[in-house]
Amino acid sequence: MGRPLFDNADFLAAARSLAAERGPAAVTVDSVTARLGAPKGSFYYRFASRDLLLGELWLTTVLAYQQGFVAAIEAGDGLAAALHTPAWVRRHLDDARLLLLHSRHDFVQGDWPAPLKRGVRDQAERFEGCLAAFSRRAFGRAGPSELRRATFVLAEVPIAAVRQHLERREPPPPLVDELIAETYRAITARPRGRG
Amino acid sequence: MGRPLFDNADFLAAARSLAAERGPAAVTVDSVTARLGAPKGSFYYRFASRDLLLGELWLTTVLAYQQGFVAAIEAGDGLAAALHTPAWVRRHLDDARLLLLHSRHDFVQGDWPAPLKRGVRDQAERFEGCLAAFSRRAFGRAGPSELRRATFVLAEVPIAAVRQHLERREPPPPLVDELIAETYRAITARPRGRG
DNA sequence: TGCGTTGTAGACTATATAGTCTAGACGTGA
DNA sequence: TCACGTCTAGACTATATAGTCTACAACGCA
Lengths: 195, 195
Known about the structure:
Shape of chain A: elongated
Structural class of chain A: mainly alpha
Distance between the termini of chain A: 75 Å
Number of domains of chain A: 2
Oligomer: homodimer
Number of strands of chain A: 0
Order of helices and strands of chain A: HHHHHHHHH
Largest sheet of chain A: none
Helix content of chain A: over 70%
């Protein structure tokens, strides 16, 4: 042997399926290489550490998820942004399990590997930019409480509505979209409060 | 040496604070006994396994949390049940972190220790009973989609609204209650749909 | 054909962890 | 005061894991 039998993508794919099946904690260097039939040396030849593998796994997944969300916001369609979560989940059940059933800290604890830090920061800033843009459009300004409202309606509620179906490995039913949409309308309706 | 220096409650308290600070994974037999200055033998004299400790920790916490929720449902006050989450979180920040920031499976993976199984099952049944009761009252029946709505408005949304504050170790601001209440009214309002 | 680069191969080390086991200290009741 | 039961004490075992290190195989190029 001597020529490449495994590349970065192989390791990432094995890690991805393990994480979807059994959670990020089950993604060990041994389990990944075993699934691939690869020796440990090949793994460490390509990834400096387990953290780098898991960080890359998380980051690529969150970017893929965020893409449609950002597009909806840029198109000025807040409801579509809120409904992006169930839609994406239906198309990418495994990736969704990986991303939405676990926290970022279940992938990499403590400091993130330097090569990924900027990527994570950019991702977060882009997301916050979306919240601010939406906030201005829907609520007229992007102060703290408007941003809090935006987070609630665009992120927290959609993710919460989808979670139990991810746990059961099933696509969220249409009712989930209804619940998200009804909440969206209530929270973005101009005259707020109980009266 | 000889007479009891530590009892079950001591170990549970040490585990509780560790879990709140650093998550259930950080609750190891060594970390718990170290925090207490107790020897390992004392721990295993009282708990058959780490799983038993963590299971008991989770179960007692979820029961404490559920108590106010059940009371609100039995009083026929659905909104109070939805707002119970932020209220309880404010009074028990540490326990709330422990309970709401992690899944049950982060405490005990695989099969639960036999002595706890029944407790967990009863707890789940009681919760489902509440959902059904609320469902009947708010939606007229307790079919699958009404139960799904009930879960959304009584559990998923309140917990989601509170999460980011738990992560920051801060009490949820009043705005969180507003968001939950507005959602509650929208979802339980009689004439549904977009019209 | 020989040599250097790239990557495979897997034994090896270090460390964290759950759980076991034996010794013995202390209090209590006979 | 003695024997026994309760509980502390901590060394010990087994296992999982991240990461290291040395050997060498295959390929391309001179």
